[in-house]
Amino acid sequence: MKKVTAMITGLLMLISVLSTAYASNYETEVERGVHFRSSPSTESYIYRMIPTGEDIHVIGKVNNYWLKIKAQDGKIGYISANSKFTTYNGSSRNVKESSKNTSGSKADAIIATAKSLIGQAEYNYGTRDHNRLILDCSSYTEYIFEKNGISLKWGTRYQKDAGKYVSKSNLRKGDLVFFSTSNSSEIGHVGIYISDGKFINILDKKQGSDVHIANLNSGFWESHYVTARRVID
After folding, report:
1. 89 classed as catalytic
2. What does the pLDDT average to over 125-130?
3. Average pLDDT over residues 198-212
4. Residue 113 in contact with residue 58, Cβ under 8 Å?
5. Among 1-5, 10-14, 42-46, 214-218, which stretch is predicted with the lowest mean pLDDT?
6. What pLDDT shows up at residue 19?
7. What is residue 100's predicted lDDT score, i.e. its pLDDT?
8. CA trace torsion 73, 74, 77, 82 (10° rounding)
9. Global pTM exceeds 0.85
10. Catalytic, out of 82, 130, 201, 215
């Protein structure tokens, strides 16, 4: 009987731990690289640097200086509570959740505009003719975002610094994705991330239309991916 009771107790504890782990919603985004520490002190051990764009779960605010958090790997520790580092606004259900809804609808509109140009826009390197829809990659993205109330400069050399950096593992629909067009890391092409590893861009005819959808994670695009930027608030 004691063995059965012990097994049941152990099982209940395991269920409790697992339910807590899976209940966590990684609702807060790191906006600037921040040290992930073992305790709320600048003298404590640093597990690692949490990079810009990584999502975390804020367990609670320790004081004006420290947040207790859970990282993606399940490790619990502490980071600075300075607002420059995260989107946390005083609640574990913070602004990121509501902003995702807003940014999601904006992203959907941007992607719809981008797709509407399939079979309509023509690619020509170095061209920015919005009236006749003769565009290069960056005038294509400029045109689409402008139609949705977001101003971008023409040229990948400008767009690669627009908004804020986002890691490939944290891409969201509507993010700008950048590629090199040679063996160097110099950026020469831009597209718009859709979801599920796909992005839309304009280039010379590849699939019957200059505007087409491609796979970010295979072939040429996988080997030439450089970075991404988030310009949707």
Report:
1. no
2. 95
3. 86
4. no
5. 10-14
6. 44
7. 53
8. 70
9. no
10. 201
Sequence-distant (6+) residues with CB within 8 A of 224 are 179, 180, 181, 189
224 is catalytic: no
- For the packed helices 137-147 and 95-116, what is the interaxial angle rounded to 10 degrees? 120
Label each residue of the chain as H, E or C: CHHHHHHHHHHHHHHHHHHHHHHCCCCEEECCCEEEECCCCCCCCEEEEECCCCEEEEEEECCCCEEEEECCCCCEEEEECCCCCECCCCCCCCHHHHHHHHHHHHHHHHHHHHHHCCCCCEECCCCEECCCCEECHHHHHHHHHHHCCCCCCCCHHHHCCCCEECCHHHCCCCCEEEEECCCCCCEEEEEEEEECCEEEEECCCCCCCCEEEEECCCHHHHHHEEEEEECCC
Residue bearing the bigger pLDDT, 226 or 102: 226
131 is catalytic: no
Q: Residue written as tokens 């960056």?
A: 138
CA distance 11 to 100: 37
The rounded distance, in Å, linking the Cα atoms of 19 and 215 is 35
Neighbours of 226 (CB within 10 A): 17
Q: What percent of the chain has pLDDT over 70?
A: 83
Q: Rounded CA gap, 143 and 89, in Å?
A: 34
197: left (phi over 0), alpha (psi -120 to 50) or beta: left
Marked catalytic residue, from 35, 137, 170, 224: 137
Active-site hit among 82, 189, 217, 224: 189
